[in-house]
Amino acid sequence: MICALRQALPRFAPGSRVGRAAYRALMAASVPRLAARRERPSRALARALSTTALGRSSAQERAWAARIEARRQRLISAGEVIRPAILDAARGLASEAPEPEVPISTASLWMSLPAQLCVFLMRLIRELRPRSCLELGTGFGISTAYQAASLELNGAGTLTTFEYAPEIAEIAGQGLSELGLASRVEVNVGAIDDLLSEALEGIAPVEYAFVDADHTEEATIREFEAMLPHLAEEALVVFDDINWTEAGMTRAWDRIRRHGRVSAALPLRRLGVVAVCQKS
Predict the structure, then answer these.
(1) 3-state percent breakdown (helix, strand, coil) of the chain, nearest 5
(2) Rounded distance between C-alpha atoms, residue 6 and residue 110, angstroms
């Protein structure tokens, strides 16, 4: 059943009514796979999957989601534009692309997670209750805001996030300030390869990470291996676009899920989640 659901998902936009229903079904069907797991990250993952599938977010979580989605809609409706070269820089690509500029409303379709997957990240942090969180790829700050809001609701924890392009980081920072979440987030601007090692030294042990930056096989594996020594004894790491075959992300996911420190791995079509435990 799970395989059939994964195959069906590409036919539906994640934000559409049918796409949301398909993701809920996949999440619900994935819960039994974690039933026998006893480590804390896997239990938190199972609860997050179940509550997201059943639409059982708390009233406070729904209120935050509504505020963040209103921010997303303001970005789209304002008609702001951004240069294609900046978008390429955000993906770590060299570009000399000329005008025309690209509307943020268009860029957000591939740079921002749909609301349902953002809610899943929120539920994941609410259940895991991490103190130190990492995000690679701030983008416009929508998923960043969901994760920061969950820390705010938990009453503890900080999120360290990285964005290559200053123009995009500025948009994200404006949104976090507007939402009253800036105190939960440290936005680092620059190349992840240049900044990550030193940052990890300062925020370890990291209990939760979301990898959503350079969606290529080499970069994803490099980033995962860089964070491994700085992860907590039990941690959750979420990867975006693990089903992107052209960029080698399917190979990256296959290698990561087989790593010796990964105790559980769950593919959710676009997202992949691994529980990482102390090496024995």
Answers:
(1) 55, 20, 25
(2) 19
**SS3 category, 267:** strand
Q: Could you give the CA distance from residue 275 to residue 201 in angstroms, rounded to a whole number?
A: 21
Parallel, antiparallel or unpaired: strands 81-82 and 102-103: antiparallel
Question: How many domains does the chain contain in total?
Answer: 1
**Do residues 215 and 247 lie in contact, with contact meaning Cβ atoms separated by under 8 Å?**
yes
Instruction: Give the C-alpha separation, 10 to 3, whole Å.
Output: 12
123, amino acid identity: R
φ and ψ of 189, to 5 deg:
-110, 125
Going by C-beta distance under 8 Å and a sequence separation of 6 or more, which residues neighbour residue 56? 50
Coil, strand, or helix at residue 221?
A: helix
Domain range for 133 is 57-67+108-277
Tokens representing residue 3 in the block: 């395989």
CATH number, domain at 135?
A: 3.40.50.150
> Does a structural domain hold residue 220?
yes
On whether residue 16 sits in a domain, the answer given is: no
| pLDDT tens profile 188-245 | 999 999 999 999 999 999 999 999 999 999 999 999 999 999 999 999 999 999 999 9
Cis peptide before 205 (omega within 30 of 0): yes
pTM of the model: 0.90
CB 101 within 8 A of CB 23: no
Helix or strand run (H / E) with residue 226: helix 217-227
